[in-house]
Design goal:
about 90% helix; rod-shaped
Amino acid sequence: MSAQKSAGIQLLLDAEREATKIVQKAREYRTKRVREARDEAKKEIEAYKAQKEAEFKKFEAEHTQGNQAAQEEANAEAEARIREIKEAGNKNREQVIKDLLHAVFTPSPEAMAAH
């Protein structure tokens, strides 16, 4: 019986070694699949990100042109108003200076009102 026990024990040890190899291969395969899945997910994320960035740039380009035109129009209006104000200032400059000098150098006695 000793030989049978020894053969049985040896058979169990061989089966255990074989099971260990199978488990190890399964772990390696699972690890490999997890890495592959992670890499695939990264690629999908990058592709999605690139697509959304392209869509955003297209949207931005379409809408920036309208804003740019409005901004240019506003700038033109502002410059026109500035020119008008400068022209009005230049036109009345002499009279304003005369009035200021007259007011400063010509005393006019006025009674101080009690507050």
